[in-house]
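Input set for joint prediction.
Command: fold jointly, output tokens.
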Amino acid sequence: RAKADGRGCWRFFEPEMDARMQARRALETDLRHAVAAGEFELFYQPIVDIRTRRTGGLEALLGWRHTGRGLVPPDAFIPLAEETGLIVPIGDWVLMRACAEAATWPGAPKVVVNLSSVQFTHRGLVDAVAAALERSGLDPARLELEITETVMLQETEATLATLRRLKGLGVRIAMDDFGTGYSSLSYLQRFPFDKVKIDRGFTRELETSPRSIAIVLAVIALCTDLGMTTTAEGVETETQFAVLSREGCAEAQGYLFSRPRPAGEIPALLARPAGDAAAPPA
Ligand code: C2E
Ligand code: MG
Ligand code: MG
Ligand code: MG
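tokens >
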């Protein structure tokens, strides 16, 4: 807290900085009550099989419906939730809710849950996943957990042990946002991923950059050789889809098929005759 000491040090804290800190504190106070107040909601975005365009899984994406702030997107509160440790109870809620909702879906698609690196280093994670599976009765093979490269930066032995315990529950593990941040090919060799998600940044450039095509092609080939499947994120155009299809990518996710949708719309979406997220190719 900025205080005027004897020498008038207060000017050190600019008014805007103080305002920003107050806004942050207000957000934190609100966030503390959000789980108990039932203000969180999951949206689900279909992930389609590239060959059939059928929905094989849905990624749970968190939203916060706040009375004054409206619908707050995850990027606006997850960093603060991580800093304050609130991501642990929030993440437990996400796991419980996603498994419970998925257990009611027709056609038994997978449900995909994002894990923060903070959750990953918390000792209760494996128990929280086991509890969510048990309470919902969801087949563990239908749950896929996404982790980012930040997780790999942490102590390797502990990370590996947690990954093995999670896999021991029968769930699948995917590496999210591959190709951004601190990507290292050695992670693919060292950690037991089932799937790699190619970051939206590469997908976006597929139409314009032969270099991006070369990278995506190499990632797909490498993952295939290592026994992992690939999903492309952020697919927005048929041209991107065509390149991914030609290059042998297994799954695609993006606005071309569907935006994230409220949980209430998912059963009807899955019950459609073809299980399609989008119209079939023209
Ligand atoms: P992510 O896991 O990489 O999720 C994909 C993000 O890309 C989502 O944003 C999704 O709405 C967006 N997206 C999907 N398709 C397209 C597309 O075609 N074009 C564009 N421009 N964007 C697309 P969202 O929902 O804002 O989530 C942002 C990030 O927040 C997620 O990135 C994930 O890292 C994090 N997040 C979301 N839900 C959770 C959660 O329950 N727990 C944790 N720890 N993190 C979460
Ligand atoms: Mg994700
Ligand atoms: Mg991603
Ligand atoms: Mg991303």
